[in-house]
């Protein structure tokens, strides 16, 4: 039986088991490959999306748990003020190396500054420690979050 | 595109190989569709590569099309190390174009053309060789293209070429202020003779080299549009995931797939000799199907293997003498006359790569061909293995390379390609084989386990007069590039051990090649030095302690013959505030190394808590890597390599019990996280020397610096990695 989920503002109907994790529906059924697979157990954060604005690991979020929630992915996060600022800061500070984890990093960081316009180092640790970067870009991620938050506050 | 033009040029190859002196480094060819095409040969940086060199076939190409677009085709891949920006910078600098005007293309698999002598003649990216190989020839090629464009303009205008100059993608005649764009001149430039000598720009005239240029590959990586191997999309694509024999070398005995076949979306179960795969509409169904399989394995000869056996095997091996990798003076005699003798043994574990993009490969086997979509550091070998497994001639296999979500050496192996082709042979249509994280960790090919036996003799002032280093473990090159393994030795395994920067009048290094059964090994970021620098720099710290001398002063006293190494130690110590007071429970440790053509020293500040847990607070790194082409990338690579090394020092360990790898996901194979990341201060020494490699040195340097800092904080010397915090508990 088909399930309808709302992705980036659009209702999408998918015919998969109800307990299928959202990650695979995004990547393999809807062909939205910006959301990445890293661990399958909510240990690395590569698959992070927003569910009603909250950073959520899509690899352990089954589609039957979504109901009428709004899912936002990396493909659309640039349309939010926080997401656009984060993406720009990522480029301005050259955060990215291999880039594989960065969709998830950007989703976690966008949720953080949308919620908390003045994150402290501790706030950044709390929000971002679930996102592994094997290239170790953490120093620049931290700087970029601060830059994006500052820019968001200035409305610039 | 430029790849279509390679065939045109290949005629020129033959001609050049026959007749033209190899002092000519460039050749030109008539480019299809008009424009200028230059082929160049990249030599390689290591001595063994130079020894193996002499082959003049071009292995990189610069094209300028009639729109003025500069297209660079080269055999290196981007894995996050920034070479898709730093190599184009070399061309753009000499060609006088904006960096944005240079477009980069992957070279197709063709070992005869693109083989890297530094890596056994294979078409590979690794060993921090890219910039070292590209530095001279890429600038020369850019300068030659510039000279030919100027010559074409001068001919058109009937003026002296010396009155013309190149700027911003145009040739300008200074006298008349006439201008012609490169695109407009490209076809005529192709008819000019290739200059025998070119004048490279003076370093003080560099506009791009030495500036923090923006990476060219990043915008697509922040909006989800970048396509890694795992992101390949094809019509009617199926997704497969697999279980391989949990014991290396085991076989599949029996599978009950009744329940798996009943899972919605599961299409097929593929049985192989030593693995089973579930093919489905999506990974969710494939994983569910895999979990529903009831599998029996025939575990084979390695069913009882454990890491303790490996340790025992290697330790035993080092009781005998081994092939001598380095011998200076007379160690035995010097040891007899030494005032003090210091001995220690060390060992380092197997390590997984844990690239964040799990192993994956997409394959479509048809009646008469095979397509492979993958992110690979070693394209031609991927093509060869696919052909072998598919039973096809190599020319029937097309490999489509993709962005790599972390390489670190893992993508220098093609086991994943072979596996995907095995599965695809049984599947109708294209299939993407995606390993679960558990399979990725448990069927990696690991950084080898090593056991080291060190001894040194000190004179009455505590300075080393004899240095003896004997170690045992796996040789990767023996399997990966057999010609480079000779007389029981290979240059990678002993790298970092045989050429320490110190003046050691009597020195011997012996390596015993022992291959523990049932555990495959492979290159891992910083390769030989990942192990050797830990041992050498920890032991050097032990000698300083035995001599009752400061670890920095002790090293400086041994570095007079290596001024660049001495300078980085002094700089790192100064910037770290070496000798200044630290809080209770804190310690500083130092390391220095000369590997991958770069000189690097690090000082780590480490806190040891009462429960023995470790926090690395700050790392100060001084590096002399010659000319710093893109300083921003160098800083990023040091930060990255340091985090990679801290993960190894604090957590990295693959253990085997009953033939099985015990770790499986990021809960049991931990990687450093944001809340554990130290600040990393990078100080780049201004240098006019040729560039050194930067992708790897930071990883090998940090591990001993951490251990030495722990010793400074606690007085406890850790001789195996990773850090065993239970040994550091207070009281």
From TrEMBL, chain A:
Keyword Metal-binding applies: yes
Name of a matching Pfam family: Fer2_2
Keyword Transmembrane helix among UniProt keywords: no
Source organism of this protein record: Phyllobacterium brassicacearum
Classification via InterPro entries: 2Fe-2S-bd (IPR002888), 2Fe-2S-bd_dom_sf (IPR036884), 2Fe-2S_ferredoxin-like_sf (IPR036010), 2Fe-2S_ferredoxin-type (IPR001041), 2Fe2S_fd_BS (IPR006058), Beta-grasp_dom_sf (IPR012675), Diverse_Oxidoreductases (IPR051452)
Molecular function per GO: 2 iron, 2 sulfur cluster binding; metal ion binding; oxidoreductase activity
Record domain 2Fe-2S ferredoxin-type: where: 1-77
Keywords: 2Fe-2S, Iron, Iron-sulfur, Metal-binding, Oxidoreductase
Protein name: (2Fe-2S)-binding protein
PANTHER family attached to this UniProt entry: BLR6218 PROTEIN, OXIDOREDUCTASE WITH IRON-SULFUR SUBUNIT
UniProtKB/TrEMBL annotation, chain B:
The Aldehyde oxidase/xanthine dehydrogenase a/b hammerhead domain, residue ranges: 223-301
Transmembrane segments: none
InterPro entries for this protein: Ald_Oxase/Xan_DH_a/b (IPR000674), AldOxase/xan_DH_MoCoBD1 (IPR008274), AldOxase/xan_DH_MoCoBD2 (IPR046867), AldOxase/xan_DH_Mopterin-bd_sf (IPR037165), N-heterocyclic_Hydroxylase (IPR052516), OxRdtase_Mopterin-bd_su_IorB (IPR012368), TAT_signal (IPR006311), TAT_signal_bac_arc (IPR019546)
Gene3D superfamilies listed in its UniProt record: Aldehyde oxidase/xanthine dehydrogenase, a/b hammerhead, Aldehyde oxidase/xanthine dehydrogenase, molybdopterin binding domain
Pfam (any one): MoCoBD_1
GO molecular function, one term: oxidoreductase activity
Top-rank taxon: Bacteria
PROSITE patterns reported for this sequence: TAT
Entry protein name: Aldehyde dehydrogenase
